[in-house]
Amino acid sequence: MAESRDDDWQSGDKSGLISIGTHKLFAQIAGPTRKAGDPLVIVVAGLGSSMRQWPAVLRGCSRFARIMGYDRTGLGRSEKAPTPSPRTGVAIAEELSALLKAMHLEPPYVLVAQSYGGVLARQFLAQRPGDVVGLCLLDTNQERTYIDRPFDESILGVMLKGVDYYNLRSGMKRSPKLSDEEWEAMVKGDDGDDGEYAGLEKQDYASSADALAAHKQFDRQVLGSHPVSVVKGSTIKELNAILEAATEIGNGTEEQRAQLAKVFETFDALEEKLQREQLRLSSQSRYFHAENSGHNVQVYEPDLVVDEIKWILESRSKSS
Questions:
Q1: DSSP secondary-structure letter at 189?
Q2: What's the predicted TM-score (pTM) here?
Q3: Three-state secondary-structure class, residue 89
Q4: Nearest 5°: phi and psi at 128?
Q5: Which residues have CB under 8 Å from 244's CB, separation 6+?
Q6: What is the pLDDT of residue 108?
Q7: Between the CA atoms of 230, 189, 174 and 288, what dihedral angle is there, to the nearest 10 degrees?
Q8: Which end of the chain is more exposed for a tag (fewer CB within 10 A), N or C?
Q9: How do residues 196-231 score in pLDDT, each as one tens digit?
Q10: How many CA atoms does the CB half-sphere of 121 hold within 13 Å?
Q11: What is the pLDDT of residue 2?
């Protein structure tokens, strides 16, 4: 893919590779022409994920707001770094700042994050506290997720071998909000062409969460009165479906399956606690349970995500 040479990212629907000095990142942007002071909505994808999961959200949000998404180093359509380096939350947040600078996209920003993207988005917030004016958190991880989540996720990997994950999700074979081409591109991408850098991000997961915890954002109500939307998915539905399918084909040992079944009994209540704690980031926050989604709310209920982004923007307008 050729490098984009159009410096005006404030208007029009555009995409391309943008140099951040050492290598190029893929970015795409859409929505109304941005005027001074208008918030830019920025998508922060989950661990090892790319913008392939987000076309329906971009499509919906671009009707009323300028929205930008990008693929992190080594993921999706972005290049790998010339020299391997840690993929910590701090480094990834700095990388996003470099990309925004290269695209001449000034604050304010509203961040929309999913899963591990929540840790990354809040690390960006820690680095640029005056530039973020809203957060939409979709079934996100937070600083205590890896500590409080009581099971070895490597066992889940054993259970997933040979299981058609997408056919299990929320009992749906595919999201009706994605075209056939978009669905195929997403599944192909999630099946492993980004595996190397997904592994590097996972390697630095715990240290990134610990670095975020040091900022004590909950205690400081770091976003003040800027709006925060927290959306919990229905991950437990996916987990139980995976366990059922794994049992049918004989994945894992009986002891491993029993261990997961025991953990899953309390998983959803714990997850709700972790999600609700994020409401403490702001005095203006709201919570929603996306009952028709699994973990990837942006894939299965993109209209809900778009509505939450709209609420954030409208709430900001009313209070400014």
A1: I
A2: 0.93
A3: helix
A4: -135, 65
A5: none
A6: 98
A7: 0
A8: C
A9: 898 899 999 999 999 999 999 999 999 999 999 999
A10: 33
A11: 47
CA distance from start to end of the chain: 41
Other CB atoms within a 10 A radius of the CB of residue 314 amount to 12
**Cα–Cα nearest to 132, from 312, 279, 296:** 312
Give the 3-state secondary structure of residue 285: strand
Q: Using CA atoms, how far apart are residues 228 and 171, in angstroms rounded to an integer?
A: 30
Greatest CA span in the chain, whole angstroms? 60
Q: Which residues of the chain have pLDDT under 70?
A: 1-6, 150, 166-174, 190-194, 319-320
- Sheet-wide strand order for 228-232: 14-19, 24-30, 67-70, 40-44, 109-114, 132-138, 228-232, 285-289
- Compute CA distances 88 → 65, 119, 120, 210, 217, whole Å: 30, 10, 9, 11, 18
- In this prediction, residue 35 carries a pLDDT of 93
Task: Report the pLDDT value the prediction gives residue 154, as an integer from 0 to 100.
Answer: 82
| Residue-level pLDDT at 150 | 67
What's the token pair of residue 16? 């391309």
**What six digits make up the tokens of 29?**
């942007």
Report yes or no: 223 and 132 within 8 Å, Cβ to Cβ.
yes
Residue pair 80/87 in contact (Cβ under 8 Å)? The answer is no
User: What is the predicted pLDDT for the residue at 194?
Assistant: 58
Tokens of 131: 């530039």
Give the model's pLDDT for residue 196.
Answer: 86
Rounded to an integer, what distance in angstroms lies between the CA atom of residue 229 and that of residue 213?
20
Could you tell me the two tokens for 270?
């714990």
Provide the pLDDT for residue 173. 58
Contact 48, 202 (CB under 8 A): yes
In contact, 264 and 236? CB cutoff 8 Å: yes
Which residues face 109 on adjacent strands?
A: 40, 132
Q: CA 230, 222, 309 angle in degrees (round to 5)?
A: 35
pLDDT for the residue numbered 316: 85
Q: What is the reported pLDDT for 184?
A: 86
What's the Rg (C-alpha) of the chain?
19
